[in-house]
Amino acid sequence: MTTDIGKDGHALPEGLRERWREESVASVWRRPSDWYHPAVDALAVAVLADDDPSRPAWALGRARGEHGVGIGETLDDLVCLYRSTGRPVPPLDAVRALNEGWSDAQAALVTAGACVDPETGLPTQQYLAVRLAETYLVAEQDDVDPAVHHGLTVVDVAAGHVTGLMRAARSAAVGAALRTTFGTGYPMATLGGGVFVVLTRTDDGVDARLAELRADIAGRCADIDVRISVRQPVRVWVEPLPETHAEAVQRLSHLARPEPWAGIPRPAGPPEGR
């Protein structure tokens, strides 16, 4: 087999990187100009040599996270690599390592609050998408419908237009109630505007937890000024996971409610990244 030398000095089977890039750019990658990174060569070599892909996959995931690539696009790109070698899906260890690398790249942002909502103390939507990706890969490896074991518990506490201190007080109360009820073993996120989502397990007494959550929210929002900003009763429901990770991420986007800036000049955000 003929080889060429990648930009990082690795011997790379001729044409693989190009096939991978073409597959990715044609189907999932948003900006062709920023696809290449030296980490792609190391992962390609490991895949073709049937070596453990964990370390190079972690490095690629970290590189993608550092460059502002979303987790969905990063995972889809990995699938394109394996598809380019005739394999329909990547192995779980490669996916997990890629996710961990991407998550590590986000750690500095989490520490600075960029991936944590400051009012609730909960992760944001994109961080939950990482955990959902792991759930879908495990379901695929076990050859089961992801909805058999997991669901999306949606909590909607919004009652009309609320801004300023009342919104912050409500958000802090609900965030604390979610953490107390579910704990760290349940990935959760705020979607904005009083909507929250928890990735729950179908075999773990969800109904009892939801009753506990409603009571906790009511207790934390007993103050009259805060109570009028909370839906009575709090709306909670469980949705089965869609068939694919992409559909689950899309569902989160549909559930997301932007904060009510109507009639108020919205502060300028950071310049568009990627």
Tell me what you see in this structure:
This is GGDEF domain-containing protein. It comes from Cellulomonas wangleii. This protein is of the alpha+beta class and 274 residues long. It folds into two domains: 11-112, Methyltransferase, Methionine Synthase (B12-binding Domains), Chain A, domain 1; 125-255, Reverse transcriptase/Diguanylate cyclase domain (Alpha-Beta Plaits). The chain contains ten helices and six strands, in the order ββααααααβαββααβα. It has helices at 16-27, 39-48, 54-66, 71-84, 92-112, 125-142, 164-182, 206-220, 224-227, 245-255; strands at 3-5, 11-13, 150-158, 188-192, 195-201, 230-240. Strand 4 (188-192) and strand 5 (195-201) form a beta hairpin. The longest helix is centred in the middle third of the chain and has 21 residues, at 92-112. The two termini are 37 Å apart. Residues 1-11 and 260-273 have low confidence and may be disordered.
Remind me, CATH topology of the largest domain? Alpha-Beta Plaits
| Rg calc | 21 Å
Please, what is the oligomeric state?
single chain
The total count of strands amounts to: 6
Which segments are poorly predicted (pLDDT under 50) over 5 or more consecutive residues?
Answer: 1-11, 260-273
Q: Report mean pLDDT, rounded to a whole number.
A: 80
The number of domains is: 2
**Second-tier CATH architecture of the largest domain:** 2-Layer Sandwich
In percent, how much strand structure appears in the residues?
5-15%
Q: What gap, in angstroms, lies between the N and C termini?
A: 37 Å
Reading off the top of the CATH hierarchy, the class of the largest domain is best stated as: Alpha Beta
CATH superfamily of the largest domain: Reverse transcriptase/Diguanylate cyclase domain
Largest sheet: 4 strands, antiparallel
| Broad shape | elongated
Order of helices and strands: EEHHHHHHEHEEHHEH
Find the structural class using helix and strand composition: alpha+beta
Summed up, the helix count is: 10
How much helix, percentage-wise, in residues? 40-55%
Protein name: GGDEF domain-containing protein
